[in-house]
Write a structure and sequence with these properties.
- The chain is 50% helix and 21% strand.
- The longest helix has 26 residues.
- The strands form 2 sheets. It has a 4-stranded antiparallel β-sheet with strand order 1-8-3-6. The chain has a 4-stranded antiparallel β-sheet with strand order 2-7-4-5.
- The chain starts with a helix and ends with a helix.
- It is globular, with a radius of gyration of 19 Å.
- The protein is α+β, with helices and mostly antiparallel strands.
Length: 202
């Protein structure tokens, strides 16, 4: 797997010269994780952050012994527990691969070496922080302002391909409902879409 998607992503924000790019290539590592692998366990200290080349990773919390899915990371996204990584505090959530994944891994030592090598790499940390902030704002606003069916519609509009990749019980957990309630939502949406299409064909 080529690391080029990672460099292309950074190139939107950074202009790295040949030497800086070479140093970055040496600092990061290509990693493959099988489906079900846990990148970070709740309560543990984060030792690395990742960039997703291929696959899907879910972020979830454990509440009263039950897993509550809050987000799905797909291709071309940074994956991290930013607070745990930067402050070395126990993570409040877990990160698990729900597909076979190919990731760029940046460990603590590599991150420190990059920051020491060039001020430009401070932008890398800022990019990751900004993306993480956007994700958490989306998670919070989604839970506070949207009902389960509205969250379902939002996900279907923003990431329709995810519905073919996410197990139904993870999707139900993300929506904060039971699998049975999810089935009812899907049935209502199918009936409404069919009705709208029928009316449009007249």
């Amino acid at each position: 797997m080529s690391l080029q998607p990672f460099f292309d992503h950074l190139n939107q924000f950074l202009e790295l010269n040949k030497q800086e790019l070479g140093f970055l290539k040496e600092a990061v590592h290509f990693r493959e994780f099988s489906k079900g692998s846990v990148l970070l366990e709740s309560g543990k200290l984060s030792q690395a952050f990742y960039f997703n080349l291929k696959g899907c990773v879910r972020l979830y919390y454990e509440v009263d012994g039950e897993e509550k899915t809050a987000f799905f990371y797909t291709e071309n996204q940074f994956i991290s527990s930013y607070e745990s990584f930067t402050r070395q505090l126990p993570s409040r959530h877990s990160l698990q691969c729900i597909e076979d994944c190919q990731l760029v891994e940046i460990g603590m030592e590599a991150a420190a070496n990059l920051l020491a090598y060039s001020p430009k790499f401070e932008a890398l940390a800022r990019i990751m922080m900004e993306e993480e902030l956007i994700i958490y704002q989306d998670i919070i606003s989604s839970f506070i302002t949207l009902k389960p069916e509205e969250r379902y519609l939002k996900l279907s509009e923003e990431s329709p391909a995810l519905f073919q990749r996410i197990p139904q019980y993870h999707l139900a957990s993300y929506l904060g409902i039971t699998p049975e309630s999810l089935s009812r939502i899907k049935k209502r949406r199918m009936e409404k879409d069919f009705l709208n299409k029928s009316q449009g064909d007249k």
